[in-house]
Known about the structure:
Blueprint lengths: L17 H41 L5 H5 L1 H6 L11 H17 L2 H11 L3 H11 L7 H8 L6 H9 L7 H6 L2 E3 L5 E3 L7 H32 L2 H12 L6 H12 L4 H9 L14 H24 L5 H8 L4 H12 L1 H16 L3 H6 L7 H10 L4 H25 L9
Helix pairs in contact: 1-20, 4-6, 5-6, 10-11, 10-14, 10-17, 12-14, 14-17, 15-16, 19-20
Amino acid sequence: MATAPADTVMRTVDGTPLKVSLRRAMRRRKLAALGLVMPLFVFILFSFILPIADMLFRSVENPQVVTIMPETTAALQGWDGNEVPDEAVFAALVADLVAGSESREIGKVATRLNYEISGMRGLIMKSARRADRLEAPYREALIDLDKDWNDISVWKLIQREGAPFTASYYLSAIDMRYDDSGEIAAQPTDRQIYVTLFLRTLWISLLITFMTLLLGFPVAYLLATLPLKYSNLLMIMVLLPFWTSLLVRTTSWIAMLQQQGVLNDLLVWSGLVSDDGRLELMHNQTGTVVAMTHILLPFMVLPLYSVMRTISPSFMRAAQSLGAPRFLAFWRVYAPLTLPGVGAGAILVFILAIGYYITPALVGGTSGQLISNFIAYHMQSSLNWGLAAALGSILLSCVLLLYYIYNRIVGIENMKLG
Length: 418
């Protein structure tokens, strides 16, 4: 039997094997594609992924006590928690207070512990100012300085928060806490605010989504069916809010809805309400829903319009020619074809509404503020970044959970923008 030639490998003109040349060409194309995508990846990494990762880390990070009071946390590791610690723990505490006062870092510990038990900041700072003048036995000296050092719950708090990571922020975010015995318990009724805020945020976001759909569907239908010269004019009116400052739009609603505003003046002038019975439409949930519905309405109209433009008018005519009434043809033929746009608009409006901040802060008052307003409060005023991060993490988890449920029921592949 004749044998094949020894060298049957296909080669390029320069003698390189064809497979090797193809691999090199594919590698160059992949590197070129990677180079084009890399700026976008870097932007997403630094503007989205890393901030979220930092937020998740801050929600459990707890470095203050273990870093600034290392001797105390080490001495409390063997403490059984049944009675006030011995002299060695008090001596370690005095040493940490002196060192923290000299480094001016003790205030961070005082603030961190005060998040858990009110009054701890005053106790820590008063003891730190006098720690360098205390003499042994330190246990009696500190208890004489402040009787709270004889409270076991104070020492349990220091021992618990002496770990580098903590679940305290998440417990506070769901209206829970550690009690005096170290067990997880519910907050007192007058301090339970965050669960109510989460439920209120979810309810208002769903209501705004429904309102934008109710108002945006007919507008999108008109845009898709009117002649071009009229639909262009209507589209300009829909897009006009995008060309106006958000602050201007919000303050305009304040002028419209307040008790001495335009709407109440019209109602009084028309005789529908008395001058003493003016409606309270501002600084409550009503003002939040009205203003945010107006602001987010274009985000519902545009996805609906982009889908409706692709629906052929012949579908409705064919249904009517087969004997279907106009409304039935619309409900059974036209409306189901718009569901991808409904899903896209609903997801877009809901996600924007659940994290909105400026409008509820200006028009929401006490009953119309959302969880985002309290996240901003803890970031800017109370400086409790750990609690703010925990609240933000829970909010992010709720959005992802709802997104997962939507994907399981409807299917994310059915959400289209045209």
